[in-house]
Amino acid sequence: MSPELAIGIAIGLPLFGALFIVANDRYPNLREAVTLVTSACLFLVVLSLLPEVIAGRYPTATPIEILPGLPISFTVEPLGMLFALVASGLWIITSIYSIGYMRGNSEHKQTRFYTCFAIALSSAMGVSFAGNALTLFLFYEVLTLSTYPLVIHHETPEAIRAGRTYLGILIGTSIALLLTGIIATWFVAGTLDFRAGGILAGKADGPLVGLLLFLYAFGIGKAALMPIHRWLPAAMVAPTPVSALLHAVAVVKAGVFSVVKVLVYIFGIDLLAKTAEAQWLIYVAGATIVIASLIALRQDNLKRRLAYSTISQLSYVVMAAAILTPISVMAAALHIAAHAMGKITLFFAAGSIYTAAHKTEISQMNGIGRRMPWTMAAFGIASLSMIGVPPTVGFLSKWYLVQGAIEANQIFALVVIVISTLLNAAYFLPIVYAAFFRAPDDDGHGHHGHGEAPIWIVLALTLTAAGTVILFWTPGPAFDLAHQLMGAAR
After folding, report:
1. Is the model's pLDDT at 13 over the cut of 60?
2. Quick check: is 59 in a domain?
3. In this structure, is residue 196 part of a structural domain?
4. C-alpha to C-alpha distance for 133 and 51, rounded to whole angstroms
5. Alpha helices for 174-279 (secondary structure H)
């Protein structure tokens, strides 16, 4: 199979899987088998592209040219390869988890759920491999639209309101800001292609660079920079597998991936480093990190605490890229993978608690680790990764982020990292402590009569928790791809 063909299959395979999922609506076992097989095949197809990228050969494909010089094009470069591996690999585990969750909670319209999930993964592959800003924009929009039915899955008034917020903010920012930035880039640079070193050098400077950066940073609403973040906690009304998709597999990762890709391949870090017009992004990202962490600290609802934690962690990626050193760009890429593995484990654990114990509030979880040791052990490991404690993969990305900040003499970024690390510990570790070392309450919030969630759920969260440790000791391809991106950023 040629690399060009593999790109087409990676984007098209989930769509074919979606058709077969719909065709097997009346046969749940077959429907879910199709989901598992499709996700596994997608990962293998994506994996087949890895040797080419590691070898420095970046496969390309241009199936359609809309206008002369303005095609729909795909290029598999290191950052996109990393995102595609994360999304396709975690789709397998999320599918395993979803079987246990959707059946364990007797969720309705499960076929629609699996179908939209597959379409979202196709969109994520398109975003990963986008060879220019136009292609990125089109698949970015499809990703928003395909996940909207997942956000409103329960179809309650609260879910419908959350869906309006989700769609309104993400579509509104992308049309009003991102598309405007892309059109302006076309007129300024004469191309929308992603190129190492950027395409704006020598064609834009001063306030124009700052304006374009503003349009991209806030137009990519999925990165959840404050104040463009309200869609994310609103979307927590969705089932937990959807939260995993939003926070770890595709949606928010598409956001921060797009920000990093634009900074490296549209602007180029050399251009941004030469002008003071880009410095504001570090301060916005740093403020988002700290403010979101403070809000997370006050949340009693577990999924809302995790949601604000995600907003904070996403801005680690943005801040790392905005520091504008090759090693900080490497840290940004690594944190995309590290956060994905840790945060999906945390959401899996939240869904496991809801399925087995029907509890959603942190104040109700005293002693729950005695009944659900696998779930809460996985939660504890993932929490350590979010804090940045070895031997978890979260330590690696934070280590390189600190190095990048020191190299750039970014004292503000270092202060933010220290403060946010303490806040991360403050809102994660008490949950783990209470789960294992406090006795269950005697006010009706005890944990009698339940154990672990169904085996599919426990298997999935165990695999992802193990992944946070394995990636610390053997970062392998993730490290190689991030290192190659560091070379492209020079």
Report:
1. yes
2. no
3. no
4. 25
5. 179-189, 207-219, 231-234, 240-244, 251-262, 269-273
Has residue 341 been placed in a domain?
yes
C-alpha torsion 219→221→222→225, nearest 10: 110
Q: For residue 64, list its beta bridge partners.
A: 72
User: Of 14, 134, 144, 2, which Cα lies nearest the Cα of 74?
Assistant: 134
Judged by DSSP in three states, 73 sits in strand
Sign of the dihedral defined by the CA atoms of residues 236, 242, 245, 248, in that order: positive
Residue 242: both structure tokens together: 């959807």
Cβ pair 182, 192 in contact under 8 A = yes
Residue 453 domain-assigned (yes or no): yes
> pLDDT of 190-243, one tens digit each?
999 999 889 998 888 888 999 999 999 999 999 999 999 999 888 888 787 887
Amino acid 247: pLDDT: 65
Mean per-residue pLDDT of the chain: 91
- Give the distance, in angstroms, between the CA of residue 464 and the centroid of all CA atoms in the same chain: 15
Domain holding 444, by residue range, is 279-490
Please give the tally of structural domains in the chain. Answer: 1
Question: What is the reported pLDDT for 134?
Answer: 95
Whether the model clears a pTM of 0.70, i.e. scores above it, the answer is yes
| Cα distance between residue 330 and residue 400, in whole Å | 7
